[in-house]
Amino acid sequence: MFTTVVSANGEANPAFAHSKAFDPSKVDFEGFLGELRVLRKEIDDTLGERDFEHLKKLEKIGYASTFIGLATAWFPNPVSMVALSFGRSSRWMFMHHVGHRGYDRVPGIPHRYTSRGFARGNRRYLDWPDWMIPEAWMYEHNVLHHSHVGEERDPDLIERNTEALRDSRLPMPLRYAAMGFLAASWRSIYYAPNTLRVWRDRFSETPVSAAVATKEEPGEELNLKDDGTKDVRTHGGHERELWLRCYLPYVGIHFVALPALFLPLGPFAAASALINSLGAEVITNLHTFTVVGPNHTGDDLYRFTSRASSKAEWALRQILGSVNYATGTELIDTLHLYLNYQIEHHIWPDLPMLRYREVQPKVKALCAKYGIPYIQEGVFTRLKKTLDVAVGKASMKVSPGFLARGRRDVMANAAE
Predict the structure, then answer these.
(1) The predicted structure's pLDDT at residue 236
(2) Residue of 82, 129, 237, 290 with fewest CB within 10 Å of its CB?
């Protein structure tokens, strides 16, 4: 049973139509979930100072990169561009993991390194001066994406979001070129408007769980304005807010204020700083797209046509719908912005970064023990698979068996 897997467009996927296709009916769901809980307790019992020290070390690396970028920005050069870029990407790394409450339970953690303090209010311009409003990104990513990974309600489902391109009559080279343009600009043209849209419309959304595994509902802090008051706006004014709170602040900081710092050195230095900042912007987009986009896309990953019926099935879906990159060293992990542990991150979104490296081999071993596919490949291999899906050259798999129809129905049919 379950020997043929179909793609999202309903066609058979011959690459997976064989006797070794994943059979979810053979998985001991509760046993797997039980062992995951044991691993989580081991982590929680040992949270402490070294998690905070690791966080501070990564922050110093990011600041040092920004300093190098600024110190060399007075003439056009790739060193400044790359250094400025990594400084910006490192703030994304912080926003992602701190915003996920990864350090909220670390004993003695300062308030500004918690999800309720980081990038809140005016600290946004110190902690994460990116295109997106922090609260909007947290709602779009932490709540909607993590609650609905691979489902139709997942706002970051690339296969669905690129349907117009997949169904177009454009030659394949032009389709890939379109994805290249998106990758070079995606934070401004995709993430900023889309995170703002779903955040403004959140009260018209059906309530969803922010983290099924921990029974957390969308926190009230995600429904606050920067000054801490309730934000009840759901319609109208989107374009105005997009410009005032997303585009103008970012442009003002990175493309006006930064070059202005070099005016005392003359027009050439200021123009050079602008060129380096623009170059850093392209590199930052390409970097973040490369490590973020392929996390849940490929012809070997699943889309899901229903909601998970239990915590155990939810945990399994995080693995079937996610992929890891190379892991294991500080250099590798930092260059990947610690997004190379996507499987473990989706099982436990609220872990300190260092803990993903420690728990990853154990989760991989558990998957082998219970016969659960665990995909880990190089980031550029995954990027190629993502682009193939985005342009329509390949399609994702549709969830097998009761992961598509509901476990109870399948088990009932099997009993009959």
Answers:
(1) 55
(2) 237
